[in-house]
Each structure stands twice: as C-alpha cells, then as structure tokens.
Amino acid sequence: MDSCVIPLRHGGLSLVQTTDFFYPLVEDPYMMGRIACANVLSDLYAMGITECDNMLMLLSVSQSMTEEEREKITPLMIKGFRDAAEEGGTAVTGGQTVVNPWIIVGGVATVVCQPNEFIMPDSAVVGDVLVLTKPLGTQVAVNAHQWLDNPERWNKINMVVSREEVELAYQEAMFNMATLNRTAAGLMHTFNAHAATDITGFGILGHSQNLAKQQRNEVSFVIHNLPIIAKMAAISKASGRFGLLQGTSAETSGGLLICLPREQAARFCSEIKSSKYGEGHQAWIVGIVEKGNRTARIIDKPRVIEVLPRGATATALVPDNSNAASEPSS
C-alpha cells in the first residue's frame, strides 16, 4: 500500500506513516522542495487522509556543490518543503541532513487516525469508474526541457514540438507536481471512493496493477483514456523513450487514481474543478472496473486527451489529428 497502517494499543486508533525521497528533477530549488513535500504527503492522500500530524525532512547536500551553492540552494529547498507542509496543514519538526555525492530531498509524514478517517484501498466493485486527478507526462516534460540544451537529443524531437511548447509543458509539469492531492483526498469521502493510489514511479499502468492486486473482489481495471500534458505523447513517440502511451512512463508527485461508483464519478470531476478549492485542480474519467482476476491493462489504442498548459493559448498548441480530444474534458 502507499502508506503503512499500524493499529495502536490505544482505543481504536491507527498510526499511518509514509516516507519518500528522490533526486532533483526541476531547476528551481524552491519548487523542488515543494514537489518533494507534495510527493511525501500524496501517499497519505491516496488513502483518503486529509490531515497530517507531523513531517520530517530528509535532505542530502551534494559534496560537489561549492559552499556558495550550498548556502543559496539548501535554504530554498527547505523553504519550499516547509511551505508545502504548511499548505497541507502540518509542520516540519525535524529530520536529517547529510553530505552525499547527490542531492536528495524527501521526508516522512505521520498521522494518527480514527477508522473513519482513511479509506483502505481494497473495495473496488464491478461497474466502478477510474478517475485520475493530474495529467500524465511529467517525466517527459522535465526531460524534454533538459534536452533543449542537448542538440543530439533535441534533434530527435524538434519535428514534433517547439521550444515554446516544451517550456510551457515544463512549467505545467512543475505546477502539477507541486500541487497537493489534499482536495482529491477529501472528495474521496464525499463521493464514496472504494480504493485509490497515487501515480508515481511505476507509471499509471504499474500503479493500477498494484492497486488491482490489493482488491478483495475479483475485479480488473481497464484504462481507455490517457490525459497527457499537451505534446508529451508526441515527444514520447518520437524519442522512442518513456512508454507514455503504454502507461509505463514514471511520474513524480502525480495525481490520485480513484475507484468511484459510476453514478458519482462525473460529479467528483465537476466538484474538484470548483473555484472554492482554488485554481488548478482537474480530473478525468480514465477507465472502468470489470470482472476479472485482479489485473490492470490499457486498451490497444487509448484516447489521448491533450491537456493544454495553463500558460498556453489554444492556437499556440493545436494538437495533431491523431488525437481524439483537444480539451481537458472529463
């Protein structure tokens, strides 16, 4: 599961805890801190938990950084992490910092819960609908952005994407990765979610397969739609890397994949976009739960939903004709 759930000796309470860390993938140290914190908290949110009692921060500073770089970059990463924790209604009370060949950033999130505060990810039923709350393509976007300065790599993809489109996709990916899944976690209770996971390093297919294996009922997940940051599917194809359309491309701090009753899914997608939750929340119906042997698959030709970056105008990013949808619809 995304988090461990440990029954406590005291009156029906459970300790829910998770840890996560990774290497930098964006250039802005402040945003990197925010993304790292969002990524840690996401494992709690995947269980429908909206509160966190305590966070620790894990930080490794690279020994190849100069003293000046350390003094400028480290406080920014810590501030980003702390600010995201504060947005999640929690606080960082400690942690561990080491010197290492690589920069590493992550943390631990801990909460003590009553049984009604979390949703065990094991109750999907035939007829449920799968909803995804962030677009795919973060790894493709951050890699393509790095390739802007690598002529050999850039020449493989510059026939399908412009520099401006890569910049916009990178900004969109960074914004999405830094967005907390807390709103989606709260709405899981409102709309009677049966199970959920967050989409991270194993891609949407890997995490769907893992979630399917946890189910008590004999069900399987079938994914028909892939909401992807605009142009990232084309880059994935042209580069021959990532496996974005196959569902194996890694994501960082991705959205929640939630099993919802069929009659609730459209309302969930509509509600999460409401302005009362702030800007930037999205959701798409991406698949169904059918009778099966606890597996997950993506259909042969999934519908790609090209999700326009917020900084883009519709004319600046016109999807090619191979895509069935050009707007981020549910």
UniProtKB/TrEMBL annotation:
<feature type="domain" description="PurM-like N-terminal">
    <location>
        <begin position="2"/>
        <end position="108"/>
    </location>
</feature>
<feature type="domain" description="PurM-like C-terminal">
    <location>
        <begin position="126"/>
        <end position="298"/>
    </location>
</feature>
<dbReference type="InterPro" id="IPR010918">
    <property type="entry name" value="PurM-like_C_dom"/>
</dbReference>
<dbReference type="Pfam" id="PF00586">
    <property type="entry name" value="AIRS"/>
</dbReference>
<keyword id="KW-0808">Transferase</keyword>
<keyword id="KW-0418">Kinase</keyword>
<protein>
    <recommendedName>
        <fullName>selenide, water dikinase</fullName>
        <ecNumber>2.7.9.3</ecNumber>
    </recommendedName>
</protein>
<dbReference type="InterPro" id="IPR036676">
    <property type="entry name" value="PurM-like_C_sf"/>
</dbReference>
<dbReference type="InterPro" id="IPR004536">
    <property type="entry name" value="SPS/SelD"/>
</dbReference>
<keyword id="KW-0547">Nucleotide-binding</keyword>
<dbReference type="InterPro" id="IPR036921">
    <property type="entry name" value="PurM-like_N_sf"/>
</dbReference>
<dbReference type="Pfam" id="PF02769">
    <property type="entry name" value="AIRS_C"/>
</dbReference>
<keyword id="KW-0067">ATP-binding</keyword>
<keyword id="KW-0711">Selenium</keyword>
<dbReference type="InterPro" id="IPR016188">
    <property type="entry name" value="PurM-like_N"/>
</dbReference>
<comment type="function">
    <text>Synthesizes selenophosphate from selenide and ATP.</text>
</comment>
